[in-house]
Automatic annotation (TrEMBL):
Residues 227-263 are annotated as: Disordered. Zn(2+) binds at residues 94, 99, 174, 179. GO terms for molecular function: kinase activity. It comes from Holothuria leucospilota. Keywords: Kinase, Metal-binding, Transferase, Zinc. This is MOB kinase activator 2. InterPro entries: MOB_kinase_act_fam, MOB_kinase_act_sf.
Amino acid sequence: MSDLATYLPRSLQEGMDWLIGRTSRKDKKTPPLSEEPRPYLDPQYSKAKVIDLDIREIVRLPTGFEYNEWIGSTTLSFFNNINILYSVLVNDYCNNESCPSMSAPNNVQYTWQDEKGKKAKCTAPQYIEYAMSYAERQFKDENVFPTKYGQVFPADFQSIIQRINRYFFHLLAHIYHSHFLHLLQFELHCHLNSIFCHYVHFLQEFDMLDPKDTYVLEDLIEVLQLNNKESQPSEPLGETSDSDKERGNINSIDSKAGATPEQ
Ligand SMILES: [Zn+2]
């Protein structure tokens, strides 16, 4: 870590100092929003990507593809890509000690509820394990993701996909908030940015999430100029059919920026 600090620019060094202090501090107090370092907004890093394609084009529903099949297979590919990226962080950087809560920008902390609606306080790696396990179960369930000829997608397929994608967004928000500097160490921030740009275009194209789900990274979305919606969605999903209970599964204090995190 000290070697890294010798070549980090001042703003990044401050961010790293904050990160080290934050993860070792025991009182878990969250700094005021104005002091929260967001190195991922620095143009030097936010502009770094590994692909330079018209992503908005490649997320569109291709001719001949069935709608559910397309959003399902695209979500599965995000699952794989985000998993690979997170595998760099889990254990060494994202563990129960370093990340005692599922934190995101704007002092947000997500809490988990199981499928019966029972809340459980958990660390970030636990939350991510629950979320990714839920997603994986859906992908493997023939009743949700049919693979045989003649099978149909379930009536609640879109709400399941939306729920999975909300989890993915939480995971990306946690990575940006707590582990951006770690990925920068490995020069993987460009991969993170590429996945995020692709992902946001996908979410927008299919109206997958509400603004209240994505506002935690709204400043990054602005910096990356991802808000320029040029066309109507391929096929609007309409109102989310998540039940209140399901929506409660996915967040807790995210409706109030700056709210005191749960302890
Ligand atoms: Zn973490």
